[in-house]
């Protein structure tokens, strides 16, 4: 029992409410509240991570009701790790967004809507990571989605409304699939508590369990953008405001991956759908990266690489081994940070070059060397250049795959290697065209030559430093991921934390 | 526990109708589709709560722990209530977006993706229109560059001549 566990959900919600109460005035106070709330969430998440690693899963019974009557929040190593990294990323993106607000006063991104929605999004993300029962997880998803609908259509311009409709309709459909899975599981087992489900699903007839598993995985796969359920993503993310696109790319898809990890380890550990997941992972990698290669818009290109790298994480889950899961957990942490950084860097390119279309960019290496550095490091990281964290994660995945063997897994190992090279190709294409080529003869009218706001640079730079820290602290961090994977493969730890006196079945 | 056939059949019909409406291009039809789908799924959850007609909760035994049919299970109803609230919020938001879309473009159709349009044009080039395009490019060398620009900067959305109309009048 820990009072800290509900705080990552409560603090942002309270902060959002207070900001709405304050009204449209006093922008400095409101900015301070946003930053303080997100920094507090980060602090709580780090404490939770330390405690979960030392003492086992931390739980909180809401309203004091014991499971399965009450709702339990659980922070085991995986949840706490995801929580800590998400909090760090949301804080850095908020710093970046503040810099952008102060500098631009953009009519298309109204401040008084952005801040409360962003905080609610954070609360929803934290709730989804902490939820100890499936229905609460659904509510966390919905909180996050509602806020994301507002953020993706912020300002209501034509392009954003067009992109938002696709996003909203697909999200609504996946929520319905999630509800169907919950209904099937409740009808079959009489509970939605994940610890209890874990114990009861083992006794279900295989056909019933498969129906629930397929519905649940489909719902999560839409959120995570696993091929062929990934078509919506490159259509909707690029037109969102930069900080929004960045946090969506980094975090929202990873919640789907988190759901897949939980479903495959805690609820359905028998691994009957392994082959399906492996094939989906291979197709995600290849379809995503092939799409990225032909793009001429930096944001769209990054969205396609996002789809291809989701494939790596699904690959690790589908291996169903301790090594594969450890590599997946590490890869998720690395990818949240790096993908967010790249989207922020695309925003900086947009600001400096006036566009994100490669056809009209050029010469940024001379005019904006700092942006070059902030793009180059995460780009090489995503491409998997040693000694950056992308290399560590990919190495872990490939070694786990080779250790397992088999024709399908070997094909995936080869596919992962090819994807990695092609990712590097796509990003080098951006680098050559935007930074190293000659400046365009007719620079777009939006190009700004003024100094970049310090907060925008600070937000990006902090994320680059965080991703470098994954390399610097690679050994201890990877060991932590291995401990998290070991915990995932032993669901009884989770069950014992939720039902300390037994009675889960 | 054998579920009520009427509830299951109604739920199935609602889901089927909702899916058909979801495939429509008009946003207002889409909203109705989402609502029907949601109600269908809610009925599905309701069937999970045991047979109808049982008493509300009185003592500590639910249908899954105590004697069958003695008490109605309150948990599915609580879950449905939550789901209804959530789908009402979503529907309100989609309606607002449909209104906004209507104000901006004159109808509430979901538009084709800009990049899809570009790909479609390029594949048309591949199947025989390439000569035409090259002739135009020779006549006006800025043609290719201008097209890239209009693709990536979304000036006012998709050109009206390529937007697909659903062809159904009287909306």
TrEMBL record, chain A:
Give TM regions: 31-50, 80-99, 119-152, 164-188, 208-232, 244-261, 273-294, 301-319, 325-349, 370-392, 412-431, 452-473
The UniProt entry lists membrane topology as: Multi-pass membrane protein
Point out the signal peptide segment. Answer: none
Major place of residence:
membrane
Q: Which keywords appear in this protein's UniProt record, sorted alphabetically?
A: Cell membrane, Membrane, Transmembrane, Transmembrane helix
All residue ranges annotated as the NADH:quinone oxidoreductase/Mrp antiporter transmembrane domain in the record:
131-409
Residues annotated as coiled-coil are none
> Cross-referenced InterPro entries, in alphabetical order?
CPA3_Na-H_Antiporter_D, NADH_UbQ_OxRdtase, ND/Mrp_TM
Compartment(s) where it occurs, according to its Swiss-Prot or TrEMBL record = Cell membrane; Membrane
Family note: Belongs to the CPA3 antiporters (TC 2.A.63) subunit D family.
The name this protein goes by in its record = Na+/H+ antiporter subunit D
Q: Which organism is it from?
A: Actinomadura fibrosa
TrEMBL record, chain B:
Does the record's keyword annotation contain Membrane? yes
Pfam families in UniProt: Oxidored_q2
Q: Which UniProt keywords apply?
A: Cell membrane, Membrane, Transmembrane, Transmembrane helix
According to its UniProt record, where is this protein mainly located? membrane
UniProt-listed InterPro entries:
CPA3_antiporter_subunitC, NUOK/Mnh_C1-like
- Region Disordered, as annotated, extends over 123-171
Q: How does the protein's chain sit in the membrane according to the entry?
A: Multi-pass membrane protein
Q: What are the Basic and acidic residues biased-composition ranges?
A: 123-138
Question: Which parts pass through the membrane?
Answer: 6-23, 30-58, 78-99
Query: Basic residues compositional bias: what residue ranges?
Result: 162-171
Which locations, inside or outside the cell, does it occupy? Cell membrane
| Organism superkingdom | Bacteria
Q: Which NCBIfam families match?
A: PRK07946.1 (NF005929)
Q: Which family does it belong to?
A: Belongs to the CPA3 antiporters (TC 2.A.63) subunit C family.
Q: What is this protein called?
A: Na(+)/H(+) antiporter subunit C
Write the lineage as a comma-separated list.
Bacteria, Bacillati, Actinomycetota, Actinomycetes, Streptosporangiales
């Amino acid at each position: 029992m820990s009072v800290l566990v509900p705080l990552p959900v409560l603090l942002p919600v309270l902060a959002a409410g207070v900001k709405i109460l304050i009204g449209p005035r006093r922008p400095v106070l409101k900015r301070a509240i946003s930053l303080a709330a997100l920094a507090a969430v980060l602090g709580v998440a780090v404490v939770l991570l330390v405690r979960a690693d030392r003492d086992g899963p931390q739980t909180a019974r809401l309203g004091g009701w014991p499971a399965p009557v009450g709702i339990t929040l659980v922070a085991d190593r995986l949840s706490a790790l995801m929580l800590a990294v998400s909090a760090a990323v949301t804080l850095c993106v908020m710093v970046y967004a503040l810099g952008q607000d102060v500098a631009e006063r953009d009519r298309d991104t109204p401040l008084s809507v952005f801040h409360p929605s962003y905080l609610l999004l954070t609360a929803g993300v934290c709730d989804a990571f902490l939820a100890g029962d499936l229905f609460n997880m659904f509510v966390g998803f919905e909180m996050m989605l509602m806020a994301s609908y507002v953020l993706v259509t912020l300002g209501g311009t034509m392009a954003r409304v067009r992109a938002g409709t696709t996003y909203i309709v697909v999200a609504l459909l996946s929520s319905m699939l999630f509800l169907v899975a919950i209904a099937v599981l409740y009808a079959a087992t009489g509970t939605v508590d994940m610890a209890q489900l874990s114990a009861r699903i083992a006794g279900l007839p295989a056909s019933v369990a498969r129906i629930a598993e397929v519905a649940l995985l489909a719902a999560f796969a839409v959120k995570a953008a696993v091929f062929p359920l990934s078509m919506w993503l490159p259509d909707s993310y690029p037109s969102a405001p930069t900080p929004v696109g960045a946090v969506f790319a980094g975090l929202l898809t990873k919640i789907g991956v988190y759901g897949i990890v939980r479903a495959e380890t805690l609820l359905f550990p028998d691994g009957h759908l392994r082959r399906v997941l492996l094939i989906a992972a291979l197709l995600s990698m290849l379809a995503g990266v092939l799409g990225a290669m032909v793009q001429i818009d930096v944001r769209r290109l990054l969205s396609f690489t996002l789809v291809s790298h989701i494939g790596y994480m699904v690959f690790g889950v589908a291996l169903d081994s301790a090594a594969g899961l450890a590599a997946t957990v590490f890869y998720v942490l690395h990818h949240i940070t790096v993908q967010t950084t790249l989207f922020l860097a695309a925003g900086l390119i947009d600001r400096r070059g006036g566009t994100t279309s490669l056809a009209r960019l050029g010469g940024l290496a001379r005019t904006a060397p700092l942006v070059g550095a902030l793009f180059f490091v995460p780009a090489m990281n995503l491409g998997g250049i040693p000694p950056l964290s992308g290399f560590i994660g990919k190495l872990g995945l490939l070694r786990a795959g080779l250790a397992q063997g088999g024709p399908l897994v070997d094909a995936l190992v080869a596919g992962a290697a090819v994807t990695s090279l092609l990712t590097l190709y796509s990003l080098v294409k951006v680098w050559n065209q935007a930074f190293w080529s000659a400046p365009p003869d007719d620079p777009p009218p939006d190009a700004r030559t003024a100094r970049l706001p310090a907060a925008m640079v600070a937000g990006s730079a902090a994320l680059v430093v965080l991703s470098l820290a994954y390399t610097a602290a690679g050994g201890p961090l990877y060991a932590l991921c291995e401990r998290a994977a070991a915990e995932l493969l032993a669901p009884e730890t989770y069950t014992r934390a939720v039902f300390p006196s037994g009675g889960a079945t | 526990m054998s579920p009520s056939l009427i509830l299951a059949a109604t739920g199935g019909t609602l889901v089927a109708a909702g899916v058909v409406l979801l495939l429509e291009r008009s946003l207002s039809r889409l909203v109705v589709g989402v609502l029907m789908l949601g109600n269908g799924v809610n009925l599905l959850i309701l069937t999970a709560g045991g047979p109808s007609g049982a008493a509300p909760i009185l003592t500590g035994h639910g249908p899954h722990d105590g004697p069958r049919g003695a008490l109605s299970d309150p948990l599915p109803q609580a879950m449905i209530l939550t789901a209804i609230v959530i789908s009402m919020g979503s529907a309100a938001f989609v309606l607002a977006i449909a209104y906004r879309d209507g104000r901006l473009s004159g109808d509430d159709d979901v538009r084709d993706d800009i990049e899809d349009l570009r790909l479609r044009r390029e594949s048309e080039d591949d199947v025989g229109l390439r000569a035409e395009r090259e002739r135009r490019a020779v006549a006006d060398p800025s043609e290719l560059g201008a097209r890239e620009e209009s693709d990536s900067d979304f000036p006012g959305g998709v050109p009206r001549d390529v937007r697909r109309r659903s062809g159904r009048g009287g909306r």
